[in-house]
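Exercise 7.
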Amino acid sequence: MFFASLGLSYVFLIPAFAEGLGASYLELGLIGTVRSVPYMFLPVIVGYIGDRFDRSRLYLSSIFATGVGMLVLAAMRTVEGIILVQVFLGIGFSLFWPLSEALVSETAPLHRRTSIMGTYGVAWATGFLIGPLFGGLIADGVGFQAAFLVAGTIVLITAAVAVAAIHGSRKRDQSRADKHSTRPEWALVSRLLPMLVVQIPYGIVFAFIVSIFPGYAVQSGLTTFEVGVLVSGFTFARIVMFTLSGRFERFGERKSATFAFMAMALVLLLIPIDRSFVALLADMCVLGLCVGIIYPQTVGYISKHSPSANLGFAVGLYETIFGIGFAIGPLASGLIAEATTLNFVYGFLAGIALSAIGLLAFSKASHIK
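Solution. The predicted structure, written as tokens, is:
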């Protein structure tokens, strides 16, 4: 997981790559949206299929797809070409995340799933911490094409290793599915709905951070390396929170998420004021802390309240709803920035974060801890 994420983390460099080719605010938003469109429907379908067949083979195909996508990206010389590659990457990501989360969740004892998802988060987030930093150095020194070639090679090597690592997992998956009862999908959706709904505002804000903000930072005068440091700071903060996921689980999923969204909204309002590199680094670290709270608590809650035979569907549904928000975020931010000002976008996103608090408060009656 670490090495796959190391290569996949180079997607953070795509906005800066596109900005260097003359991409507008709208085009930057379109890049993030196009990559996110498959995420609006594929994860739940893939999760459902994975529950009934061998999800490990689907997982391997996702690694190959994303690795090839990175290599193709290195050959692009136009913004239009970059946008087209996002479709391929989006399909790969739509398989990769829900399948890997389901594979990890089903191997963990029920009472430790949230904590284990935090450990899983540390593994992939560490890759996302180191990747943008070295990717930024490579891009500054040799060029973006070389950086994406390195990323694609890392991911494809990981796929080869994964073939051996998960050999025989099909039999283990099938035996687990046979030993656990199923729950009708509609009943499962009803039970998990409160935690699922808040993924839309979460996805909108998170998409802006990873898809749009790096390009904005370059336009503000930061170097590619400095952007890489900002992204790495964001990811390091996530890792810190992932290691504390067990403590936040005891505090309660709803309370933890409410606290995180409040802090997220405050930081989004401060970013237009904090124009220096150091101030922006601090802002990105706080945003990383917030994301690090929300993710493991949500996935852990969903996996604990889903039968193993429906686990892929449940996690896939979570990723699909998150994907809807993630697809809306970049395009909406780009359109608003074109029509108004960039500062207004930050205020809009702060309002979106606060709306999640309202949803969480409304969900109190659903007995979310």
